[in-house]
Amino acid sequence: MITLVRDQLKEQLVPPGGVSVPPPSGRRKALLTVTLVFAMLVGGAVGVLVFLPGENTMVSISPSDDETPLAPPQKPVTVKPETQHTAAEESAPTATRPPETEQADAARQAREQVWALRIEADAENIDSWADEEYRQILKRLEEADNLLNEQVWTDAEEKYTSVLTDLQDLLDTKEQRYQQALEEGLQSLAAEKPESASNFFNRALIIKPSSVEAKNGLAQAEQLAALRASYQQALSFEEQGQLAEAMTQLEEILGSGSPYEPAVEARERIQAQLDEELFQQEMNTLFLALKGQDFAAARRSMQTLEALGLRRQEVAQAAALLEERETRAEIQRLKTQAETFSGEERWQQVVQAYGDILNLDPDLLFASAGRQEATKRAELDNSLSDAVARSHRLQDPDQRSAAASLLDYARRAEPQGPKLQSQIEALDSLLEKFRTPVTVTLDSNNQTQVTIYHVGRISPFFTTEIDLTPGTYTLVGSRAGYRDVRMQITVGPDTGDNRYDIRCEEAI
């Protein structure tokens, strides 16, 4: 098969009477074989070499030393212009290229350089960060292509060269554009323009998708946008008079740890408005509480007003009014309490109540007089209670005399309450009992003489009776030749066991 192909190739390259063409090298033989087979498959056409019109080119192929020629040497062959073959063109080193062909090659080479740089530019996403300039360059590139198609080689080359220079210059501005986008993004952040900042940082990310600075800036811009949206909502609440809602919104903004200065200022402004509203509300509550004498509520309002720190002079005046009203009410309460205790004849509590009033206002005469009178009644009450409780002392005549004087004083006391009357009756009854003599029975041996101090002497007896007023008595028994006997008896007001034995029986 290979031999057949070679023979056919020889016949085409060496016509009768032509010059002998040495056999091609191994690489060229293979190329010629492939070319011929391809030509036979598509219709038997054979490629011919293209030369300038109107000229004949001599193709001389020198054989290699180590290869066998495809055909014996013959005369050189003249190839017509219509005949084209790439292998023959490449093997003609002695051919001279006309100037127009060189211009065309230069234009095509310039176009290849431009297109290679365009591929690089597209890989750099140049249309994303230099869209307008790039479109102008592509428009000029299209013009250069049109010149090339029209075979205006020189103009096409110049246009391509200009496009190449401008495109390279545009690519060289990438870093500068990146830095400029970052700078303008930061400036927009500082000016609190998050939308503009986002655009700049996105532009920087288009130029450098892995840029940490641009990513951080974009995140800050998004955060600023969210803060501004919340801030605007807070301002809207403020305009509508919804101060509590506005404050809640601002607290959420500042609670996220963001030092957003407009939000800080708005919070201070709205807090001042809320404080003013609270001040008015608490002041009204305080006066209403004073009117209703709800001093606990008034004190709570006063504490709030003092904590707000607004209008200190007004707060001080309100505090003085509260203290005055509260003192007046307390005095009235204690006075009522003293009168109640007086009616109940609880004189010690009356003294305490008037004393508390005088602690609040030492110049109140009614309290001073009331405490003095209550003190007397308290002393009378104590004395009467003591005299009744320790009635055995009434056996003493001196005690009975003092009790009688106390009873006379009690009868003159005013007012005469149930308790005092009861005490008077009790003491009077006791005095009556202790004034009434009681029969006392004495037993002896009829040999002992008995003497009762402050009463008299009784002759010896076996049994005798004597009337004695209640009290304590000393009895002495005496008998000649016997030791005296002394005894002390207490005679009570009751007619109970009042029998005693006294006799001298111990001889001396």
Please describe what this structure looks like.
The N and C termini lie far apart (190 Å). A four-stranded antiparallel sheet has the order 5-4-7-8, with no helix packed on it. The protein is of the alpha+beta class. The chain contains 18 helices and nine strands. Among the domains are: 89 residues, no CATH class; 74 residues; 48 residues, no CATH class; 65 residues, Carboxypeptidase-like, regulatory domain (Immunoglobulin-like, Sandwich).
Average of per-residue pLDDT values? 81
Total DSSP helices: 18
Report the structural category: alpha+beta
The helix content, as a percent range, equals: 55-70%
Give the tally of β-strands: 9
Gap between N and C termini, in Å?
Answer: 190 Å
**Globular, elongated, flat, extended or rod-shaped: what is the shape?**
rod-shaped
Give a short account of the largest sheet. Answer: 4 strands, antiparallel
Radius of gyration: 70 Å
| Major β-sheet strand ordering | 5-4-7-8
Short key terms for the protein model shown above:
alpha+beta, disordered N terminus, 9% strand, 508 residues, four-stranded antiparallel β-sheet
State the gist of this model.
By secondary structure, the protein is an alpha+beta fold. 64% of the residues lie in helices and 9% in strands. It is built from 18 helices and 9 strands.
Task: List the topology elements.
Layout: H1 2-13, H2 26-41, E1 57-58, E2 78-79, H3 86-90, H4 99-123, H5 126-129, H6 131-149, H7 153-172, H8 174-190, H9 194-207, H10 212-239, H11 243-255, H12 261-291, H13 295-308, H14 312-343, H15 347-360, H16 365-389, H17 397-412, H18 418-435, E3 438-443, E4 449-452, E5 456-458, E6 463-468, E7 471-479, E8 482-491, E9 499-501
Parallel strand pairs: 3-9
Antiparallel strand pairs: 1-2, 3-6, 4-5, 4-7, 7-8
